[in-house]
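User: I'm putting together a teaching handout on how multi-component assemblies are represented. Below are the sequence lines for each component of a complex, exactly as they appear in our records. Could you produce the 3D structure of the whole assembly as structure tokens, so the students can see both representations side by side? Please keep the chain order the same as the input.
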Amino acid sequence: MNIPRIRIVLVETSHPGNIGAAARAMKNMGLEELVLVAPEAFPHPQASARASGADDILAAARVVATLPEALVGCALAIGSSARPRHLAAESLEPRGCAALLTGAVARGETCALVFGRERTGLTNAELDHCTQLVHIPTNPAYSSLNVAAAVQVLAYEVRMSWLQRAASDVPAQPAGSDPFTAPATVDEFEQLIEHLQQVAIETGFLDPLKPKHLMRRLRRLFARTRLEAREVAILRGLLSATQGRKRAGRRDSDGD
Amino acid sequence: MNIPRIRIVLVETSHPGNIGAAARAMKNMGLEELVLVAPEAFPHPQASARASGADDILAAARVVATLPEALVGCALAIGSSARPRHLAAESLEPRGCAALLTGAVARGETCALVFGRERTGLTNAELDHCTQLVHIPTNPAYSSLNVAAAVQVLAYEVRMSWLQRAASDVPAQPAGSDPFTAPATVDEFEQLIEHLQQVAIETGFLDPLKPKHLMRRLRRLFARTRLEAREVAILRGLLSATQGRKRAGRRDSDGD
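Assistant: Of course. Below is the structure of the complete assembly, with chains in the same order as your input.
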């Protein structure tokens, strides 16, 4: 009854008790994989106490230094945000988020749900690494959801979606054996964005001293389309080609 | 944006931290009224610490000695149960539970969501006081949901249902000025059940030494139908009449 391939990523959690409570919420809802990005204190007795029987999740948790490391191999990385909108990515409600995740999992993809710090959430730079955002509707007068409570709500919606999918007996659509028909992973997506930025700077289209929102808008555009690996390869091929042409053009005119 | 008339009732909570976390979850989702049945330690610094800004909910919380006191005036009392079935009451999923609650609230009714002890939940006697049960689907291999996490999930579903109702602009149907067209309150329901039992015992239909499941089955039957106050009055009138006839009959035959 466990739900595979949905990774819970907690970024720089301050209170180990919250890590334990998140692990318990995960296990209750049948999620298994916990990744901690630079936690303040882990392992910690408070984490074990609040996990209350979900110690196996804590024992198997991976600790990494940065968010991109936590997201390697993921086709989707959905960031939990207290703000309903952010320029870089499409924003989902919990139910839509869960449907997206279980659909991806049924196709054999690996996904991540990303949760930020207790007080300040995820930074804009971290949100930029997410392919979508999810916003849990809260009382506008008191919107600071505890991080483990946010994990609980989204894991619950994932379980509900998973059970519905099982009940309606939707046949899983495994990704084809051709790796190019698979959706791009987050790291492939990042390489594309970096490549785009490189080209934008090289061409003078982007002034690195006055970047404005250009890269964020590009991220938004490409994140929304859910690129296939093949499409990333095509785009990057094109970018490389423009770089080659530009260099070639310079060589032609400057003679170097 | 607050949601009125939905009471959260916590029965004999052991850990004050859970009371605080429940208050925070309530406030996040726009619920206001907390009633504590015989809490082990309250007020308590751990409750305030975990409430994290929801101190107003804690300050306004009522402490009572028994579950029936907590439920006075409620048209619905939905008990959270780890077991999906219980003989006495109809069992709901969280989404159906939320729709039932917000529908009742829109008609001006007061409702309660009831949560049991950390280790043992609600007793059968307490479940009997509930008009419906709600079961949060969990991993069967690890189903012990933290009490504040259960409050969080159900309060979240209530908020989602409330927002949907607001978005679809369903006009509220206030209860008529005639108190008899209103649904029966939990205490009126209890009086009916007690009256039924009295009659069942008096008539020899129920052996108090071997009660089996009779009263529970009766509860289930009447709870499922969601009685109006008027209907309770009619039923109790009928019960009184049978008692009067019986006494009258005895008087006739025994001459006392």
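A couple of points students might notice: DSSP finds ten helices and seven strands in chain B. Chain B has two domains: 6-167, 179-254.
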